[in-house]
Design brief:
Chain lengths: 393, 193
């Protein structure tokens, strides 16, 4: 019935990788994800896994090594943050367009500059159109659980896309919290053996991977990538159902907290969702019908489902832990509001940018956002949809 | 113990305040609690002021932010008292535990007339006596466990012996000294009257 433990988010990710025991891990250290390959390399040295650990000289090489390994027919994993992900940029697109189901643990951190090692989501938002499945995690438990589910999703024949599991740098990666681990044998059985259909080391089927793809077919191949991303929704739900059978922990595209009769709602991702839940409880105790939609599956984006979930509220704030610097609002805000427009849900919506570069987001900040939503409901209109919370006055 | 207690640690880089907060999380975890233990990461260098936090609760902890209104504050280094506002937000029905030999008059002045309970402990003396070196975090851990009533003292000592055996597997010669530091600290932490 699970193992009661206390681990940091990075320890939880490393232990998930140990239990998965992939064929190859290639990584280069970068704060705040450094501990993941660090812990994992001790598992390699101690013989707890039989993974080939490739200590590369850069993140570009880390992703290149994962691409090579996965193309050869191996199961490959990596971990990185911020500028490490930036340095992988070219290979990130190669991984997804070659349909290689690599799994990455991304510990979210601000992309420089100026130099900042703390948490925001600018690294993840930078690769949101790169064709990777992106799952977000509120705490160490979800970072662990999402990794355990990752290979089943990514390697499914209707999907074959790389997948990244995000968690907040320092806030969860370096915080020790309670967690329930799954027994090794159960994880092994759940994840299963990787059996690629086409791979380079198959001498019975000589193939080329990644040759020139010009006007005649690249368009069709991109269409297939998009189709795989659409297929991923069904697979993500199926895997979550099996996971629930094993652990009792239920995962959906997003978590709805007190949304049944909510008048005002916040949409956000990762650790801040926990803080929002405590504020929702406080507001509900005072008779204010507040709710939360915590997005777990950001890519593919659950457009129709999220529009339905928010369709009956009187005002919604979508919170982005990075600024798109487009002069119009954060990335999650744009996805949510366009989903609502297309699905004809007319709800006043505001964008709140928060927590940039590790700025602490407090319960007080969240109260401020809900108060502003009450104002929107009272006035019946949004005068300034592009806002900040927690900024120095 | 209350349903949720929140603790803030003030120390200097290299004194082990972060380690102490993680050990406290471990200790409370072993009594069946839900815990959080996390430092506030800044530029990491020896001697710079650092802050670490603990939440200990009977139910799952969901909030993810720093602690602004702690129930308890632990000050590992009394040279911080004049430069850091250590009682900021500290609840008056809570307490502050300070590693110091300074007198009541001085403490009242630097704590801006804090009205809650003030406890002091000479962690330097205890550490030197028990370990022959200055590691203030072990005595401060015992002090906060006692002041906050986190668990039974004997159970705490028993648990810590297990933790030290694990933590110091490669240098077992320091286990007895650390245990002695805990025992002395439990006896020598006193409320300033």
């Amino acid at each position: 019935m699970g193992i009661r433990e206390r681990l940091s988010g990075n320890e939880a990710a490393a232990i998930a990788m140990k239990q998965i025991n992939p064929d190859v891990v290639a990584a280069f250290p970068i704060t705040p994800s450094t501990e993941i390959p660090q812990y994992f390399s001790t598992f390699v040295s101690n013989g707890a896994v039989d993974t080939e650990f490739v200590a590369v000289e850069s993140e570009h090489s880390a992703m290149s090594a994962c691409v090579g390994a996965e193309a050869a027919g191996a199961r490959a994993m990596t971990a990185t943050s911020a500028n490490g992900l930036s340095y992988m940029w070219e290979m990130i697109y190669i991984a997804s367009s070659l349909r290689l189901p690599i799994v990455m643990s991304l510990v979210n951190r601000a992309v420089s500059g100026p130099l900042n090692i703390h948490c925001d989501h600018s690294d993840a938002m930078g690769v949101r159109d790169s064709g990777w499945i992106m799952l977000f995690s509120e705490n160490n438990q979800e970072a662990y659980d999402n990794l355990i589910m990752a290979h089943r999703i990514a390697e499914h024949k209707d999907v074959l896309l790389p997948l990244m599991v995000c968690q907040d740098g320092f806030i969860t990666s370096h915080s020790i919290e309670n967690i329930e681990l799954i027994e090794d044998d159960k994880v092994k059985e759940f994840v299963g053996t990787y059996k690629p259909e086409h791979y380079l080391l198959n001498e019975k089927e000589p193939i080329a991977i990644g040759p020139l793809d010009v006007q005649s077919y690249l368009f069709e191949h991109k269409y297939q990538q998009a189709e795989a991303m659409r297929n991923a929704k069904k697979v993500i739900n199926e895997v979550a159902k099996d996971f629930e059978k094993m652990t009792g922990r239920k995962y959906s595209f997003f978590e709805e907290y007190q949304m049944e009769d909510a008048d005002i709602a916040i949409v956000c991702m990762n650790s801040t969702a926990g803080t929002v839940k405590t504020v929702v409880d406080e507001l509900r105790a005072n008779g204010i019908k507040a709710g939360l939609v915590k997005v777990r599956m950001f890519r593919p984006f659950p457009a129709e489902e999220i529009a339905t979930a928010l369709g009956n509220v009187k005002a919604v704030a979508i919170m982005d832990k990075s600024d798109s610097l487009n002069g119009a609002g954060g990335a999650l805000f744009e996805d949510v509001t366009s989903a609502m427009y297309v699905n004809q849900k007319q709800v006043p919506a505001v964008s709140y940018v928060y927590g940039i570069g590790g700025r602490d987001t407090t319960a007080k900040d969240i109260h401020e956002v809900y108060s502003s939503l009450q104002e929107v409901v009272k006035e019946g209109k949004v005068t300034n949809p592009y806002r900040y919370v927690g900024l120095r006055k | 113990m209350k349903d949720l207690i929140e603790i803030r640690w003030h120390g200097r880089g290299g004194q082990g305040a972060k380690t102490a907060s993680l050990l406290l999380a471990d200790t409370a975890f072993n009594t069946g609690k839900y815990i959080q233990g996390f430092p506030e990461y800044g530029p990491e260098r020896m001697g710079a002021p650092i802050t670490a936090y603990n939440r200990i609760s009977n139910s799952p902890i969901r909030i993810h932010s720093n602690i602004y209104e702690p129930d308890y504050v632990v000050v590992v280094d009394d040279t911080l008292l004049e430069s850091v506002d250590v009682t900021a937000g500290l609840k008056e029905d809570g307490a502050i535990v300070i590693n110091t030999t300074k007198d009541k008059e001085y403490l009242n002045k630097v704590l801006h007339g804090y009205k809650g309970k003030i406890y002091t402990i000479d962690a330097r003396k205890i550490s030197l006596e028990a370990l022959g070196k200055y590691f203030p975090n072990t005595p401060m851990l015992a002090a906060i466990v006692k002041v906050a009533g986190i668990m039974d003292e004997n159970k705490f000592l028993e648990d810590m012996k297990g933790s030290f055996k694990h933590k110091f597997a490669k240098k077992p010669e320091v286990i007895d000294g650390n245990m002695k530091a805990l025992e002395l600290a439990l006896k020598q932490v006193n409320e300033v009257q």
